[in-house]
Amino acid sequence: MWAISDLHIGEKNKKYDDFHADKKLTEFLLSNPDKSLIGVGDIVELWQGDWRAIYESREELFDLLFSKLLYWVLGNHDEDIYKYRRHIPVEMCQYLILNSTIFLHGHQFDIFNSRYKSIGKAITQIAGKLENIHPNIDHWLSTLQDKVTAVGRYGDKRDYAKNAAAFAHGMKVDDRVITHVIMGHTHKKEVLQRKDILYQNSGTWIGEKQDITQF
């Protein structure tokens, strides 16, 4: 079984599209004949694009991806995909529990994507417009936002593993204790032990990275 997140696939050949690993993703999907993949949020970039246009620009890739996805756990950038659920052959959810593992995207632990969601979304959309000036300005602004607030994905006061472990600690489902958290959002692939909780982050496919988490 594999977990994948934060591809942020946009409309191909548009300046705001940060996904450039079509070939590598296709190769990975074809190398796994079974339907054994769980998407852990931000698979597509709906804050800067329209789903219909995104799909049509990469129809073959999406059809292959959907043939491998068991579940699609929604993130902050792709939660609106739920409106198109009748046309997408993948079960979608806000979080997923399998055996003793909980899957969630992780934006729930980010102040600008939970309490102040509209602000975080507005920053991303403004950055998308500014990409006409520089293609990576959205990442620069995201990093700047996090450094200024010290509560974002790079902030000293924000430990996503600690918060995820605290969230899952003591959680029981059908008399089974949750001992494993898999999430994305931070774009940083990690495996950490936080007391009785194993934390794994599935990383990202933005830039030069093509991260996959096996569990």
Task: Explain what this protein looks like in three dimensions.
This protein is α/β, with parallel strands linked by helices and 215 residues long. It has a single domain, classed as Purple Acid Phosphatase, chain A, domain 2 (4-Layer Sandwich). The strands form 3 sheets. Strands 4-3-2-1-12 form a 5-stranded mixed sheet. Strands 5-6-9-11-10 form a 5-stranded mixed sheet, covered by helices on one side. Strands 7-8 form a two-stranded antiparallel sheet. The N and C termini lie close together (6 Å).
Write a brief caption for the model.
The protein has helices at residues 22-30, 51-57, 59-68, 117-130, 137-149, 160-168, and strands at residues 2-4, 37-40, 69-73, 91-93, 96-98, 101-103, 172-173, 176-177, 180-183, 190-194, 197-201, 213-214. The protein is α/β, with parallel strands linked by helices and 215 residues long.
* Total DSSP helices: 6
Please state the average pLDDT score.
84
Structure class: alpha/beta
How many beta-strand segments?
12
CATH top level is Alpha Beta
Strand content: 15-25%
Q: Main beta sheet: strand number and arrangement?
A: 5 strands, mixed
Helix content: 25-40%
The CATH architecture category equals 4-Layer Sandwich
- The CATH topology is given as Purple Acid Phosphatase, chain A, domain 2
Radius of gyration: 17 Å
Low-confidence stretches are: 147-157
Distance between the termini: 6 Å
Helix-strand sequence: EHEHHEEEEHHHEEEEEE
Strand order of the largest sheet: 4-3-2-1-12
Shape field? globular
Q: What is the domain total for the residues?
A: 1
